[in-house]
Design a protein that fits this description.
Chain lengths: ~230, ~290, ~675
């Protein structure tokens, strides 16, 4: 019986979204959607069909229920959004391990110092000033941490619903945009566990290792990290 | 060393090579350059000189000198006939003799008495042949000449002195040494030689100047006509008459090679007759050969 | 009929005894070697075996002079000069002038003519000369060469004639000289065969053709030099390196054996013994010599000494004189001891090539905009082979006239003998290449140098395709070469724009300064652009930014390049985003990523929607906020262009995973 459930769950989870559609089943309270690269949030109603480049937000008291339908197999499943989440529709999909690795590699490639150019020539075209950020006159504020929390909640939704690959990637981006969230132990733990879930052993070990450098760790937390690292290393 | 200096060195090295390649001398025993050929100047043909074969004095010389004091040892070698004489002759001319306005000779001056080594010489008539004018053997007598027959007494390498005495006063003394004895080895008289071959000449003895006078002999008229005066450069006993020359000799078969070994002296005299005299002591050897 | 041993020995001895000198010993090297028939290598003594000329490399000049130490006259005689030239790979020719090959016999005068002392010098004089020789050699195969030599021999007899002029009153001798001349042309045929590196064999047929002209005369006939056909053979053997042995023999009765030792530093020591049938002794002479080679020069010296003086004194007996003994005008029974000096020089292409070009390949055409690439990246390659027997370091140089100031050298490549390698060719072009407006084909010269000398070992010409200055190969990596942030027009433009807005810029927070500048510069084109092509219409033609500014229009490549230049001119980093949708390469597209300089935590300062910007590191190594800009939408305004770019980026990279899959490429312009 258990196996059957797993298989069915797997099959459900393994549904590719694209080749499928997302329909708003019902909404409650403050639920809005942002299309594509636009800046405005617009209200969404039940029955609206969402596109992959849409983003959905639930307010403090908002909830929503989405129907994910696979057009080819006609199979469908439901996704519930609790309050205070922001979820990109493009994240509601399953990446193959290969795609996940590729994306992560691209991250690494982007992170690594720029490789020598193919022709071996290193002539700067201009004295490009690299993002010194200029002198802040104090007017520019950091990204709103509340949005960060909404986004983080959104990643939890993804992880709870089996979208661990996109969840991991999204969480990584959230930590980049909101560095304050990245310094919270529990948040980082979530990422590391998600990595484990997504079969990213190496990345998980690296993440646990990076977490050991967080400030204000309790000894229990440190032990936990060591244990996790040891367990993964086996 | 860069290329330029190398090149320059080479050029200098080879510019220095400017001598002509050396020759190879091909010498032969025979080919000794020992004869100098001189022309023979004949006097006026009317002047029949005393044959060179007798006097050893060339006709031209006979013309040039007023007088001559000669002492000769002469040998004629015709092979089967060998005749040797020795004599001394003194002749001093004081004027020329013309017949039909042609010079035919000289008047022999009577210069008194002439003695040779204290022996008186014979004063005889001087005959001048007119055969060249009249085409017959005629002669006239003009003046005197002095002769002494020394056959048998002639000594080579000996001092002979002539003393001319006029009215018991010696007016002239001429002294001369006779040359050493000359012995001709080749060509021997009477031999026949081919013109196409070089004629080797060999002799022994004799100090002093030597000449070989080549003459053609007319056996009919019994006259010799000298053609070449071949003077010997080095008296080493050898000489060659090249066949190239022999082929150029006039036709005729009998030639005479007159070997003259002479001591000569020329003097100017005032007494008894002013002029130039030739004193000669000669050894003359005539070799009659046939050239074909 | 069986031939018994004695018979064989007899024949052998007879053969041996018929050895007469036939080699012409006209230079010091041949004289030193003594029997050099098979060792002829250049113009020195080529008359002995013309086939030897095949070894000369280009121009070859040799000179010889000699002196006879025993002769009373000192000084050197100029023997001769030879000049040879390689005609093409398998043939060579030479010419020789030898005034020193002169044999004169003088028969001293028998009779002198009294007053005039004629004849002065000789009764008879025989002069033999061989002043001219020409030779041609042809390679029949790699190991066999044949040669023809033609010699001109001149004979003159001066005979003194006597004449007796008999007149009435005088008889006098006269001498005159008659001269008879004859000229003979003689031809020899020689063959040189080298079956291996150690052995060399030569065979020469002498006087095979004889053509004579001139006075016919008994005297001349008597003293004519023999010109019978003779056969000569020579052998050359190298038992160990630095040592060579040679031997030769002729049916005309001359022969010899010789040896050469090379102690090193270019020196050579030689010696030989020579035999002549016409002489009494078995061994008639010996020679000793040495030589020195330096660069393209050779100098040699040799000494020839006759063991028995005999006829070698310079004078001989006329009776024993036999003209038939004189088979060779430089070496005969009447030759004297001599010291010979020779020098030889090579000119022209004297070095042996050590390397050869097997082929040249060019890797496509040259895009003037991307010319700097070829200073490092190969423009082609040349396949080189080491054709020498030593390892070499080979260097290639590449040169295109006018478009390069000097040939560009490659790194040296080490090659073993017979080894091959592909040497990459690089090129540093000068500014003239930027003036090419259309496709041009030019000649490129490739040279290979294997030794440090001015001359090259091999040369090849190749065609180099130069595209017009606006040509582009479609690779986004090379598109950046069209970016010209230093162009004065671009600089002025960007500065002017920023100057116009300096007040507003002053009020902007420092963090947003870069973003604001970028926005101002990009927005400045709004309204100014009058025409924008469809993206990627002319994919192989790219306008330089100054052209785009002047034309006020262009396609997506032109605009991307132009904006990248404008932004770079004020220090703002950009990157090209090249999208080639899989299965739809015609839909390929290019847009720009612009570095705002903002840290990711300030991203909301420019947009609330994170999809409007991209967090990436670029060449600075730090995460920064970059905004995608669709340059072809600039005409509609900055916001439109930004939205368009952002949307494309999101669709292609985030959703489509283009970067991960590789059909999206981002090229930083730094």
């Amino acid at each position: 019986m258990r196996i059957l459930v797993c298989v069915i769950t797997f099959l459900c989870v393994a549904m590719p979204l694209f080749g499928g559609s997302i329909i708003v089943q019902n909404t409650n309270g403050d639920v809005s959607v942002r299309h594509g690269v636009t800046e405005e949030w617009v209200r969404v109603a039940a029955g609206d069909v969402l596109k992959p480049n849409d983003t959905m937000r639930t307010g403090k008291d908002g909830t929503a229920s989405l129907m994910l339908r696979n057009d080819s197999t006609s199979a469908s499943r439901r996704l519930s959004l609790p309050p205070m989440v922001i979820v990109d529709m493009s994240d509601i999909r399953v990446l193959t391990q290969e795609e996940l690795m590729l994306k992560l590699t691209m991250e690494k490639v982007r992170s690594a110092p720029q490789q020598k150019k193919q022709d071996g020539l290193e002539i700067s075209n201009a004295a490009v000033v690299h993002g010194t950020g200029g002198n802040s006159k104090g007017k520019t504020a950091e990204n709103d941490p509340q949005i960060g929390r909404f986004l983080l909640n959104g990643t939890k939704v993804l992880l709870e619903n089996g979208f661990s690959a996109t969840g991991v990637l999204r969480m990584m981006q959230v930590f980049r945009l909101f560095p304050s969230l990245a310094s919270v132990f529990d948040h980082r733990l979530l990422l590391a566990e998600a990595m484990e879930e997504a079969n990213l052993k190496g990345e998980a070990i690296a993440e646990y290792g990076a977490m050991t450098r967080l400030e204000g760790l309790t000894s229990a937390q440190k032990d936990l990290l060591q244990n996790r690292i040891a367990a993964l290393r086996k | 060393m860069n290329r330029l200096s190398c090149a320059f060195l080479c050029v200098v090295l080879f510019a220095a090579g400017c001598r002509q390649p050396s020759d190879v001398e091909l010498v032969s025993e025979e080919n000794t350059t020992n004869l100098e050929a001189y022309p023979v100047v004949l006097s006026d043909t009317n002047f029949v000189a005393i044959s060179v074969d007798s006097t050893g004095v060339l006709p031209d010389d006979q013309m040039r000198f007023n007088g001559s004091f000669v002492i000769n040892a002469v040998t004629w070698d015709a092979g089967d006939v060998l005749k040797s004489i020795a004599y001394s002759r003194v002749f001093v001319a004081d004027s020329t003799v013309r017949v039909l306005n042609r010079l035919v000779g000289f008047q022999g001056s009577d210069i008194g008495t002439v003695s040779l080594n204290s022996n008186l010489m014979l004063k005889i008539a001087h005959r001048i042949s007119l055969s060249s004018i009249f085409n017959r053997d005629t002669a006239i007598v003009r003046g005197v000449q002095y002769l002494a027959d020394l056959t048998g007494s002639y000594q080579p390498d000996h001092l002979y002195t002539w003393v001319v005495t006029n009215r018991l006063v010696p007016v002239l003394t001429v002294a001369l040494e006779t040359p050493e004895h000359l012995s001709v080895i080749s060509p021997r008289g009477g031999t026949t030689h081919l013109r196409s071959r070089n004629l080797p000449i060999q002799w022994t003895g004799g100090k002093g100047k030597m000449s070989i006078i080549m003459s053609v002999y007319d056996p009919v008229r019994k006259r010799t006509r000298p053609l070449l005066d071949l003077r010997v450069r080095t008296n080493n006993g050898r000489a060659v008459i090249p066949s190239k020359l022999l082929t150029q000799l006039p036709s005729g078969t009998t030639f005479v090679l007159t070997f003259v070994l002479a001591n000569k002296k020329e003097s100017e005299i005032l007494q008894p007759v002013p002029g130039k005299i030739l004193a000669q002591a000669a050894f003359v050897y005539n070799s009659y050969i046939e050239l074909r | 009929m069986p031939v018994d041993r004695t018979g064989l020995a007899t024949i052998g001895i007879l053969l041996m005894s018929t050895m007469l000198h036939a080699q012409s010993l006209t230079d010091a090297r041949s004289l030193g070697l003594g029997a050099s028939l098979a060792a002829i290598r250049d113009t020195r003594d080529f008359a002995a075996n013309p086939a030897g000329l095949i070894h000369i490399r280009d121009w070859d000049l040799s000179l010889t002079t000699y002196t006879e130490p025993s002769y009373n006259q000192s000084g050197f005689v100029f023997q001769g000069i030879s000049l040879g030239k390689r005609l093409f790979d398998g043939a060579a020719a030479a010419f020789r002038y030898t005034p020193g090959t002169n044999l004169t016999f003088v028969v001293p005068p028998v009779l002198l003519l009294g007053d005039s002392n004629l004849p002065e010098s000789a009764d008879r004089e025989f002069e033999y000369r061989e002043p001219f020789t020409a030779g041609v050699a042809v390679a029949l195969s790699e190991r066999i060469a044949a040669g023809i030599g033609i010699r001109n021999r001149q004979e003159r007899v001066t005979d003194t004639r006597y004449q007796l002029i008999v007149r009435d009153t005088i008889a006098y001798p006269v001498a005159s000289q008659e001269t008879y001349n004859q000229s003979v042309w003689l031809a020899d045929l020689g063959v040189q065969w080298e079956p291996s590196a150690r052995w060399g064999l030569a065979l020469v047929g002498r006087n095979l053709i004889r053509i004579s002209s001139g006075d016919g005369n008994d005297v001349l006939e008597t003293f004519r030099l023999p010109d019978k056909i003779a056969l000569e053979g020579g052998l050359h053997y190298v038992p160990v390196s630095h040592l060579a042995l040679c031997a030769s023999a002729s049916t005309a009765g001359i022969g010899g054996v010789g040896a050469q030792w090379l102690p090193g530093s270019g020196f050579a020591i030689r010696g030989s013994v020579l035999a002549n049938r016409a002489e009494k002794n078995v061994i008639s002479a010996f020679t000793a010599g040495f030589g020195w080679s330096y660069d393209v020069f050779d100098v040699d010296a040799a000494y020839l000494h006759f063991l028995s003086k005999g006829t070698h004194r310079g004078s001989s007996s006329l009776d024993d004189f036999a003209v038939d003994d004189i088979v060779n005008l430089d070496f005969h029974p009447y030759s004297r001891d001599r010291i010979v000096l020779s020098a030889r020089a090579m000119f022209g292409r004297t070095r042996e090539s050590l390397a050869r070009i097997e082929g040249v390949t060019m890797t496509g055409g040259v895009y003037p905009a991307a010319r700097e690439v070829f200073a490092y990246k190969p423009i082609g390659s040349v396949k080189v082979r080491n054709i020498s027997s030593q390892p070499i370091h080979a260097k290639a140089t590449f040169y295109v006239d006018r478009l390069m100031d000097a040939p560009t050298e490659s790194q040296p490549v080490y090659l073993m003998p017979g080894g091959e390698a592909d040497i990459p060719l690089t090129a540093v072009f000068n500014d003239r290449i930027g003036q090419l407006t259309s496709l041009t084909i030019k000649e490129g010269d490739v040279f290979i140098h294997a030794t440090p000398a001015e001359q090259y070992d091999d040369r090849a010409q190749t065609r180099v395709v130069f595209h017009g200055r606006n040509a582009w190969d479609g690779d986004v990596n090379t598109l950046r070469y069209f970016v010209t942030p230093d162009d004065p027009v671009i600089l002025k433009y960007s500065r002017d724009v920023l100057l116009d807005h300096r007040d507003s810029l002053a009020r902007v927070d420092g963090l947003l300064e870069q973003f604001t500048k970028a926005r101002l510069l990009l927005a400045s084109f709004t309204g100014r652009l009058q025409y924008v092509n469809d993206p990627r219409l002319t994919a192989d033609f790219v306008q330089y930014p100054v052209e785009t500014v002047n034309l006020r229009g262009g396609d997506c490549d032109d605009l991307a390049v132009c904006f990248a230049s404008l932004l770079a001119s004020v220090g703002i980093a950009t990157a090209f985003v090249d999208v080639i949708p899989p299965g739809n390469p015609d839909q390929a597209h290019l847009f720009l990523l612009v570095d705002t300089g903002l840290e990711p935590r300030f991203g909301s300062a420019i947009a609330q929607n994170p999809k409007r910007y991209v967090i990436r590191r670029g060449t600075s190594g730090k995460d920064r906020v970059w905004i995608p800009v669709e340059t072809t939408m600039i005409a509609r305004g900055f916001e439109e262009a930004w939205s368009g770019g952002a949307q494309q980026y999101f669709d292609d990279v985030e959703v489509g995973l283009g970067l991960a899959h590789g059909w999206v490429r981002i090229v930083d312009l730094d």
